[in-house]
User: Which sequence fits this backbone?
């Protein structure tokens, strides 16, 4: 189950963080995303737009996966499933990337600002839900 | 049972062997140790004593490493990794196997994991290390002892830090700090605070004190070199500041731990950072709590404590006011007499590409401050929080040390911004660098750098930071204020001006002339050695004269000395639009507008102190101290005064009486003339009698004036006479005539008469027509267009001359007086009949009674063209009916050439009938009355005697007329004759003769 997705800008500034949990562990998820950036920083030098990060935090078992675009925007996925199929993650990030591109193609979006588009949020939640389904199926 | 015993025996042996191995290792013999460990391993495996097996394995790894100290190869590394893996596995096995053990093998397992991680801790193996560390962190939750957990997290954090994973290290450091905080004692709190302080870098909330001084000063310098380009570091920190949820948590924990640790400065710093950076995310109650935390911390600090982190308010540069016009600094060009030239923009254009091209004329202007003269800098303060902010003192912080700043205290209400003026005095020559302000607020002294706020505002504009503190306080948009290059120069003189009698607007009616005294005092410490006054602005001709010499004579003006310069002002005429508005008699509104319009002129006083040493001057031109410019605005407010309605030329002739004197004026007294002429004794001043014409030729210029104002005006007319034209003694005292005053009440119209008779030329000269003559000589016909134009020009010149001699002055109240500017009106009125006004007739005729010869001789010279100011005694009318009356007609030639003429004299009675000729002639005569041939030399006169015998008493009119023979061009032009063959006929004015009866 995906608990959090995030878009992080090229200066490691959060552009979009959305958690999909009911509890008040938002701060914890922020910490996970923030800590994931360590590995991201390491990988930014080497151009590769897919890697995974595994991180188990105290009190909260979670895996995070990252995806780097050519413009050094990072997508981070935090999941509680410890064994996720690679293809699922790739598929998820491809769709997430498309959604992001559509969102920033909005002429009223200022690059570097937080993404506030509702359409994007809806689309992301659809993708997150379908991720669960596809992995189940 | 035996098996059991044997097993336990072996186990004991194995454990002994392991212990011996430990001692060997301690004794420094890794080879021996290794041998013992090998035995122990063997025995432990056989007895399934996993815990001790793992311990022995660990020992053997140590022995190998100690044995091969200094050499590191992949084989060894693989060996260590392999063995430690085994160690960890066996510790885990022992945990499962023997749950009831007193010592939990978990700690051993975690320790082994950490040891392996530390051994492998390199960037290339980061992934593996992270895995081990993650495992270790996962194991932490099984640890019962909090201090164990603490140690574990410290180690994990340290290893992550070594790997370069700062954020992960920060995360675990925070865990450590939380564990410390759970201990609830002061020492633990201090430790927590210190650990948290280490995390601030990763979370980008570090205290400014922890940033090295070097980078800070670099940043300031780079900011000064190019403020538009932000430092990379500060940009990144702006971006990272968006992790506000995490950052606030960290800062809050630092604050908590610092309070608990009893470190007020750290608490203050954390609260300041929290409040300054995250005020939009904190509720007003929370903001108040932070404010009280700041105050509480400050109470426990010694007064005068400085903190590197600034709290509120936000301070940004608002403007560097340039020098006010009173103390403007002008670059001095020592090579020129007018050293100020070129300093002010010349020409009518605001923008010229030439001046724009200069490299130093960019947006970064230079500012010159003067030693000892106070300067001001405007800064804007903002308090975006929900509490009243009291800034105990704020002053400019100057690094260069040659500036004394004056502190100021400010109260800022919630959510407000305020522009304040900070001032100071430069103390020594050199550049001044102002990076920011020093603020004493919440009991601690902090440095507020302008650059930080600039970066913050830039970030806000790009949406990178939470909020623009100035915008949310209602201040206007971001202004781009660049810090100019400020340099301090040695003291200069300083002139201070004030208008004597108050600096308010000088209220003048149109045309009013008034002297204004301007007091200039040298308030500087250097004497003024050069000074020059010029005018600028609109309506410069309103300043009639400036007593420049007085200023010159006062130089050098020592410090403290003052000089008063009179300036004569003449109010200009209001434009048509102005007068419309002013006609509503709204003096105040028109005054405001006049002042606002900036239509008043200003005095520009360029002055400078001594030039400095001569050799100094030669070596470097830049060492010449600059001069200054003082602008004294003359705030002239012009009110509408008398307004001119129209001008008319009035002319009339009053026949003169024939008497003994040609200028008998007696009977004119009481003639129904205008009021201005009604003063009998003064009429001679108004009216020029032409003795030869014999009549009172009255030509008046009538000016109709209205007074729309609410004060009374008195008009006086004066005429300046040309002294040179009056050769005789008569006009010595009459160089200027003044006429009775005319009073115009408010809202009334009045007419003022200006006599024009004084302007007749003494003789008809061909110079008037000189151009005509030349052209006539060549063509013999009509004037060419060129000569016509020349004639026009000459005429205009003489008209102007005439008009300039008429002065219409007015006076209102005690101290308002001025002059009406009516030249154009007069010119328009005179244009048509200027010839008649200016030029005399070629011939003038006069009659007089002849009594006896001696009198005759005495009077012959009298009738010159002049006005007789000495009134002759009113004589009795000597003409009696039935008596022979000897008379003579005088003909004067007013030209410069001899005129031949045929003269005739006629006499008419009251009915206009010719009473000399015809059947019913009532007048008999002796002598010749018609066809008299006379030749009059130039500018002289001839007389012809005759006698009349009146039969009937009554009024008679005698008229002389002449036909000029061989008239020249001058005469023709004067007579405006059409053709050259036309006879030129000159007719004299009628003369009255009153014939009394004999009874």
Assistant:
């Amino acid at each position: 189950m995906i608990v959090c997705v995030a878009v992080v800008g090229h200066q490691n500034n959060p552009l979009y963080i959305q958690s999909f949990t009911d509890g008040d562990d938002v701060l914890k998820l922020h910490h996970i995303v923030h800590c994931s950036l360590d590995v991201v920083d390491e990988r930014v030098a080497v151009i590769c737009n897919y890697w995974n990060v595994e991180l188990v935090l105290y009190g909260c078992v979670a895996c995070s996966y990252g995806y780097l675009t050519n413009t050094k925007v990072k997508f981070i996925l935090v999941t509680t499933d410890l064994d996720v199929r690679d293809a699922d993650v790739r598929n998820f990030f491809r769709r997430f990337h498309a959604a992001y591109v559509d969102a920033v193609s909005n002429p009223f979006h200022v690059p570097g600002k937080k993404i506030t588009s509702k359409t994007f949020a809806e689309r992301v939640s659809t993708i997150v839900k379908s991720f669960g389904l596809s992995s189940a199926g | 049972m035996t098996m059991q015993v044997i097993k336990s025996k072996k186990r004991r042996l194995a454990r002994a062997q392991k212990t011996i191995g430990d001692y060997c290792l301690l004794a420094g013999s890794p080879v021996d140790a290794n041998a013992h460990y090998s035995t122990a391993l063997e025995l432990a495996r056989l007895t399934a004593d996993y815990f001790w097996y793992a311990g022995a394995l660990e020992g053997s790894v140590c022995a190998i490493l100690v044995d091969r100290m200094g050499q590191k190869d992949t084989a060894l590394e693989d060996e260590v990794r392999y063995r430690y893996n085994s160690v960890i596995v066996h510790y885990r096995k022992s945990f499962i196997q023997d749950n009831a053990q007193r010592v939990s093998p978990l700690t051993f397992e975690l320790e082994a994991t950490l040891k392996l991680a530390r051994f492998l801790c390199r960037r290339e193996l980061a992934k593996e290390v992270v895995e081990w560390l993650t495992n270790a962190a996962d194991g932490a939750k099984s640890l019962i002892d909090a201090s164990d957990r603490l140690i574990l997290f410290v180690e994990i954090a340290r290893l992550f830090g070594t790997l370069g994973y700062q954020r992960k290290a920060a995360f675990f450091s925070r865990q450590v700090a939380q564990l410390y905080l759970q201990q609830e004692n002061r020492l633990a709190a201090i430790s927590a605070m210190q650990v948290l302080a280490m995390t601030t870098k990763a979370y980008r909330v570090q205290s400014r004190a922890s940033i090295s001084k070097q980078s800070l000063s670099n940043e300031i310098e780079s900011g000064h070199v190019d403020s538009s380009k932000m430092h990379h570091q500060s940009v990144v920190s702006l971006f990272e500041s968006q992790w506000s949820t995490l950052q606030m948590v960290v800062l809050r924990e630092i604050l908590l731990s610092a309070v608990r640790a009893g470190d007020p400065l750290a608490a203050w710093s954390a609260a300041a950072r929290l409040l300054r950076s995250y005020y939009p995310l904190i509720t007003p109650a929370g903001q108040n709590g932070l404010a009280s935390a700041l105050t509480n911390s400050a109470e426990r600090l010694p007064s005068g404590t400085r903190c590197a982190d600034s709290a509120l308010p936000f301070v940004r540069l608002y403007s560097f006011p340039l020098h006010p016009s009173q103390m403007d600094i002008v670059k001095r060009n020592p090579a020129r007499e007018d050293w100020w030239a070129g300093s002010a923009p010349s020409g009518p254009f605001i923008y010229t590409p030439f001046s724009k091209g200069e490299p130093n004329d960019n947006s970064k202007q230079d500012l010159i401050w003067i030693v000892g003269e106070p300067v001001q800098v405007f800064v804007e303060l903002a308090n975006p929080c929900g509490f009243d902010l009291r800034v105990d003192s704020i002053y400019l912080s100057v690094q260069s040390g040659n500036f004394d700043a004056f502190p100021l205290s400010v109260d800022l209400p919630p959510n407000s911004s305020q522009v304040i003026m900070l001032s100071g005095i430069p103390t020594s020559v050199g550049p001044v660098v102002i990076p920011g302000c020093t603020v004493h607020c919440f009991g601690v002294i902090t440095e507020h750098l302008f650059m930080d706020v600039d970066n913050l505002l830039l970030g806000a504009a790009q949406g990178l930071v939470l909020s623009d503190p100035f915008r949310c306080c209602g201040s206007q948009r971001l202004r781009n204020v660049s810090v100019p290059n400020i340099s301090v120069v040695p003291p200069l003189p300083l002139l201070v001006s004030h208008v004597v009698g108050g600096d308010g607007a000088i209220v003048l009616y149109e045309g009013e002339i008034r002297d204004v005294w301007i007091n200039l005092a040298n308030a500087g410490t250097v004497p003024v050695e050069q000074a020059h006054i010029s005018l600028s602005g609109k309506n410069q001709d309103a300043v009639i004269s400036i007593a420049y010499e007085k200023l010159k004579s006062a130089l050098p003006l020592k410090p403290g000395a003052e000089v008063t310069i009179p300036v004569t002002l003449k109010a200009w005429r209001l434009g048509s639009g102005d007068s419309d508005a002013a006609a509503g008699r709204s003096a105040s509104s028109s005054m405001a507008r006049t002042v606002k319009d900036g239509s008043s002129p200003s005095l520009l006083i360029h002055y400078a102190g001594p030039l400095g040493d001569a050799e100094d001057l030669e070596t470097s031109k830049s060492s010449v101290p600059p001069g200054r410019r003082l602008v004294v605005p003359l705030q002239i407010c012009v009110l509408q005064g008398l307004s001119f309605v129209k001008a008319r030329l009035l002319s009339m002739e009053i026949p003169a009486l024939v008497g003994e004197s040609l200028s008998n004026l007696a009977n004119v007294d009481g003639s129904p003339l205008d009021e201005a002429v009604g003063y009998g004794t003064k009429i001679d001043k108004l009216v020029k009698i032409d003795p030869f014409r014999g009549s009172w030729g009255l030509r008046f210029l009538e000016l109709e004036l209205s007074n729309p104002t609410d004060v009374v005006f008195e008009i006086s007319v004066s005429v300046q006479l040309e002294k040179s034209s009056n050769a005789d003694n008569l006009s010595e005292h009459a160089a200027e005539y003044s006429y009775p005053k005319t009073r115009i009440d408010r809202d009334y119209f009045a007419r003022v008469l200006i006599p024009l008779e004084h302007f007749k030329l003494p003789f008809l000269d061909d110079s008037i027509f000189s151009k005509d003559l030349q052209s006539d000589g060549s063509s013999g016909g009509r004037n060419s267009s060129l000569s016509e134009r020349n004639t026009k020009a000459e005429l205009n010149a003489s008209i102007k001359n005439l008009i300039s001699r008429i002065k219409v002055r007015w006076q209102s109240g005690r101290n308002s007086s001025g002059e009406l500017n009516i030249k154009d009106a007069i010119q328009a009125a005179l244009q048509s009949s200027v010839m008649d006004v200016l030029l005399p007739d070629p011939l003038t005729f006069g009659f007089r009674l002849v009594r006896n010869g001696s009198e005759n001789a005495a009077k012959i010279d009298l009738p010159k063209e002049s006005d007789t100011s000495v009134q002759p005694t009113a004589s009795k009318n000597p003409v009696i009916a039935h008596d022979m009356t000897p008379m003579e007609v005088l003909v004067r030639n007013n030209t410069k050439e001899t005129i031949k003429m045929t003269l005739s004299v006629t006499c008419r009675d009251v009915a206009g009938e010719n009473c000399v000729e015809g059947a019913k002639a009532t007048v008999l005569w002796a002598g010749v009355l018609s066809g008299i041939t006379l030749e009059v030399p130039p500018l002289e006169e001839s007389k012809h005697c005759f006698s009349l015998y009146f039969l009937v008493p009554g009024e008679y009119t005698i008229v002389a007329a002449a036909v000029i023979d061989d008239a020249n061009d001058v005469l023709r032009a004067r007579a405006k004759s059409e053709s050259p063959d036309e006879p030129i006929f000159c007719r004299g004015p009628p003369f009255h003769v009153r014939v009394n009866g004999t009874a």
Summary: Chain B has 27 helices and 40 strands. The first strand of chain B starts at residue 306 and ends at 307. The mean pLDDT of chain B is 70. The interface with chain A takes residues 123, 126, 130-131, 134-135, 137-138, 140-141, 160, 164-168, 171, 175, 235-236, 239-240, 242-243, 245-246, 249, 462-464 of chain B (CB under 8 Å).
